[in-house]
């Protein structure tokens, strides 16, 4: 169990999505080792406490700032930009106007790179997204449903 604790902590520290991997593994480990559920519960609580303490201490000591929201949204941004690029004539004006609040739609042809999301991600309006998350998600879902292959 000590090995699993260490691996879990390092996974969460070294990967931004490591926390999700560890948390998603919980149900499976509880099912397989259900006889030891009390020890497992203590182990997982310890992992989360150590991880959170590490983050708080390290972030304060080194004055680490959180990354922009656009970093987290690389894939959805890239998907929207490609869909707009490939289907611009078919997308209604209202959607284009909404998208222009997140990034400049006219720059899609210049910024889009199918193997690299950085150019479009860097021009993403993080502040507007922070105030309008549900709108962005609804646009993404609308385009996904209408253009599932793009």
TrEMBL record:
Name the keywords, alphabetized: Membrane, Transmembrane, Transmembrane helix
* Transmembrane regions: 6-33, 40-62
Protein name (Swiss-Prot/TrEMBL): Uncharacterized protein
